[in-house]
């Protein structure tokens, strides 16, 4: 194992030198990061295929092209983000002016997951770099090829005193890393591991961002374009073989359109992946045998409408649709994180809310409806991290929208300026002129209280 303490101390010293604070340095490093990714696109795609059998189109869109958008957005707006913000000062502090200075936090730790093993490390890194921090990256050992290519690229192109990668078994390496008082920890992964990370951060009072998951519902109203809805649901659910934290976890479908929607879903699956998805070059695989066994067991938790075939040697599970799923079935007790889609019907919007309330605070919510009032009802009455109306997944592609969970699905938000702000300390400063010194605040107070009440009522 690398000497974690040595890396941490060298980054603390490098940050203290002030080297990362200037605009020119930050811009230069972001440009370098983009160039490094660009020069190694094929190697990154190959690693993602090795780990998850990701199709090149899917991998490029979600792991590489996505990062170009984030880096370009940061480069375009970085100068403005770094400028102090002017704030108003209360009349009682006249003659004063106020401003907010954004300063880097210091040394941050970014812990990534296996499902999008490149993007979900580098994306928060973009924000950390833009904000002027040093960073240690801990990629997932469950995606070893991607972990290795990331370590190679960072080590060859960046000073480890600025950015470093620490590989290894998360159960061993993460606690060793968390022994150090980082200025911020950013974790993407499961809820159980997120709880452990938060507990390890507590002794140092380290601010922590948790990007977790949960059971994200997809509501299909009776007033909807069923053909379009089915395509977008199938696309979002089976992208990366369902191993997406914001994938539609289960469908809540109005009973009047359930039959037609189920037919449309099956048609979309065949259109996208053919009669035998195992032979499709556009369909991924499950990360490992442990996850495969969990998903395989879920298949028996309802009536099999479509799919259900599997091949453990190939880590393949067919796109699967389940109906008549009991509320207490295992598949409805935890995030599925795989290509299995339970379908539950409802007759009233209140019934739909009751179903979703059994799995509160999902990371995402998807609503398919052409009824604006129904759209408003669901988006206002359900607590969720973010979501879409008449689409799936795409809200996370926008650098102008904050991405993050609520409650059990996480804490903190990032993307675009939200990433910059996340990795910055907003320092408040009030400056008071000396040309006038209002005496009301000084004793003896006498009858000054009356004047103060007039000013502050």
UniProtKB/TrEMBL annotation:
Q: Which GO terms describe its cellular component?
A: cytoplasm
Q: Which Gene3D superfamilies match?
A: Aldehyde Dehydrogenase, Chain A, domain 1, Aldehyde Dehydrogenase, Chain A, domain 2
Q: Which organism is it from?
A: Chitinophaga skermanii
Name listed for the protein in its UniProt record: Aldehyde dehydrogenase
Taxonomic superkingdom? Bacteria
**Residue positions of the active site:** 211, 245
Q: Where is the Aldehyde dehydrogenase domain?
A: 10-429
User: What Gene Ontology biological process does one annotation of this record name?
Assistant: aldehyde metabolic process
Q: Which Pfam families match?
A: Aldedh
């Amino acid at each position: 194992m690398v000497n974690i303490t040595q890396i941490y101390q060298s980054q603390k010293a490098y940050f203290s030198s002030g080297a990362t604070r200037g605009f020119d340095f930050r811009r230069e490093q972001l440009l370098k990061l983009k160039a490094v990714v660009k020069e190694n696109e094929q190697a990154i795609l190959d690693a993602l295929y090795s780990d998850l059998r990701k199709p090149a189109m899917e991998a490029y869109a979600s792991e590489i092209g996505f990062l170009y958008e984030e880096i370009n957005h940061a480069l375009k707006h970085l100068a403005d983000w770094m400028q102090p913000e002017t704030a108003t000062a209360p009349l009682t502090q006249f003659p004063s002016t106020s401003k907010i200075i954004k300063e880097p936090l210091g040394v941050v730790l970014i812990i990534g997951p296996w499902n999008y093993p490149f993007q979900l490390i580098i994306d928060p890194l973009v924000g950390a770099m833009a904000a002027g921090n040093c960073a240690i990256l801990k990629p997932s050992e469950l995606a070893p090829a991607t972990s290795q290519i990331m370590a190679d690229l960072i080590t060859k192109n960046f000073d480890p005193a600025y950015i470093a990668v620490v590989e290894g078994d998360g159960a061993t390496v993460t606690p060793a890393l968390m022994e150090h008082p980082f200025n911020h920890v950013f974790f993407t992964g499961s809820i159980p591991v997120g709880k452990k990370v938060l507990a390890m951060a507590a002794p140092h009072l380290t601010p922590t961002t948790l990007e977790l998951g949960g059971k994200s519902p997809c509501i299909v109203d009776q007033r909807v374009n069923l053909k379009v809805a089915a395509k977008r649901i199938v696309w979002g659910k089976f992208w990366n073989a369902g191993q997406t934290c914001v994938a539609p976890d289960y469908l809540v479908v109005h009973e009047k359109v359930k039959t037609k929607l189920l037919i449309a879903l099956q048609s979309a699956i065949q259109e996208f992946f053919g009669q035998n998805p195992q032979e499709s070059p556009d369909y991924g695989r499950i990360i490992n045998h442990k996850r495969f066994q969990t998903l395989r067991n879920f298949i028996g938790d309802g009536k099999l409408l479509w799919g259900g075939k599997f091949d453990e040697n190939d880590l393949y599970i067919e796109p699967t649709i389940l109906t008549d799923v009991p509320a207490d079935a295992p598949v409805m007790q935890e995030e599925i994180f795989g290509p299995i889609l339970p379908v539950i019907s409802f007759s009233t919007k209140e019934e739909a809310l009751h179903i979703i309330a059994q799995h509160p605070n999902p990371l995402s919510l998807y609503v398919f409806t052409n009824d604006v009032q129904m759209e408003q009802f669901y988006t206002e009455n359900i607590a969720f991290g973010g979501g879409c109306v008449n689409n799936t997944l795409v809200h996370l592609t926008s650098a102008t929208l904050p991405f993050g969970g609520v409650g059990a699905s996480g804490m903190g938000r990032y993307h675009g300026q939200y990433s910059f702000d996340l990795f910055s300390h907003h320092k408040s400063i009030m400056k008071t002129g000396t040309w006038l010194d209002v005496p009301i605040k000084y004793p003896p107070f006498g009858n000054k209280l009356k004047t103060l009440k007039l000013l502050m009522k």
